[in-house]
Amino acid sequence: MDRDLKDYRRSYEKYFLKEENLPASPFELFTQWFKEVEDAGGVEEANAMTFSTIGVDGYPKSRIVLLKQYDERGFVFYTNYSSDKAQAIAKNANVCISFFWPNLERQVIIKGTIAKTTEEESISYYKSRPRGSQLGAWTSDQSEIITSRSILDDKLKMLEAKYEGKEIPKPPHWGGYRVSPVSIEFWQGRPNRLHDRILFSINKLTEETETKWEYVRLAP
Ligand SMILES: Cc1cc2nc3c(=O)[nH]c(=O)nc-3n(C[C@H](O)[C@H](O)[C@H](O)COP(=O)(O)O)c2cc1C
To answer: Which of the following is catalytic: 63, 193, 197, 217?
Structure first.
């Protein structure tokens, strides 16, 4: 390796997080940050997020998935319901998602519980996908061991022929998950490694209580 990672150093000084500017809802702040990140440019897929589960083997595992929708109910992505991550979720619904937006020196970390979206939501999103992606969902037994690449290519060809000129139904093993947050941390890079960290946590005393978010500042 030519370059010494110890010499990689950047000072973060673009933005700051002040209590007096915070909206009451972390979703509002998320929306504001997402827009600013997109408007600033330089991040290819701002909706790419690191999604972490505790696996059935007891190890945490993270992988990237794409955020496809969010509102006060939570953050939605789509995947295979038989995949490794789905098996992890079935065992432990406590998960974490995080975003890193280097263009604005920002990180967002969301902890929450996960549940499948409704079948209607999954079908509606599946229908909006390009045909190639629709067929891909049928083609891949996500996370299973395969003996060669040609298994996928052959299966795709077979499915293309099968569904030629026809609507492709959503596979039963494919759909969405929604992460309902219990906490959302907003991290803004600042000079001298003295970053701003604001942690919103949900304060819900009973099922009937209206959801109320509270925040604290964390040391960087
Ligand atoms: C930029 C990017 C976006 C991705 N988006 C998704 C996605 O939305 N859904 C998905 O199932 N996998 C997505 N993947 C693939 C996952 O990272 C992962 O390989 C796959 O879901 C299998 O994970 P698992 O075996 O832990 O279940 C994406 C990968 C990258 C790099």
So the answer is: 193
